[in-house]
Amino acid sequence: MAEHRSMQRAALLDAARTLLSEGGTEALTFPALAERTGLARSSVYEYFRSRAAVVEELCEADFPVWAAEVAAVMECAESPEGKVEAYVRQQLALVGDRRHRAVVAISASELDAGAREKIRAAHGGLVAMIVDALGELGHGQPRLAAMLLQGVVDAAVRRIELGAAEDPAVVTEAAVTMALRGVRG
Fold first, then answer.
1. Per residue in 83-112, is it b (16+ CB within 10 Å) or e — as a string?
2. pTM value?
3. Which of 139, 150, 167, 179 has its CA 20 to 30 A from that of 91?
4. Which is nearest to 9 in space by CA: 54, 60, 62?
């Protein structure tokens, strides 16, 4: 029985990723989850109390994998500048990944305080990955620089997700340039 519940929960999470990827937050409904998994709608409530609970669990499952992918690419870089570039590029490369879309899909206002705190902590771990490289580059306040750098990445993510007029590759290059050279370009 426990194995069956685990498989159903995994199927629900996979369906949620697909729904978020295909249609954004509006697509993530319990009736849609039930339809995708073949469960009765009432059965979905046995696994999750709300949409926010689904997103919270997706974040707990997917964010560490996503962060590990960023860390792995950074480890291959041979210089602090290379680490910064890898940090930016890999995060932006993951924008289209349905795991990433699930992480950012529902606005923080729809999550309870505990869920928001877990997501903030996960993002804090991501920011911590780049602090040493920024220190090696001579930043007097590398933690602050890391948070500002993540702000550039987050803005680029939003620009790509909005389907802005620019090609995602153009947005990525602009973000990398901003990260490495500031506003001088």
1. bbbbbbbbbbbbbebbbbbbbbbbeeeebe
2. 0.78
3. 139
4. 54
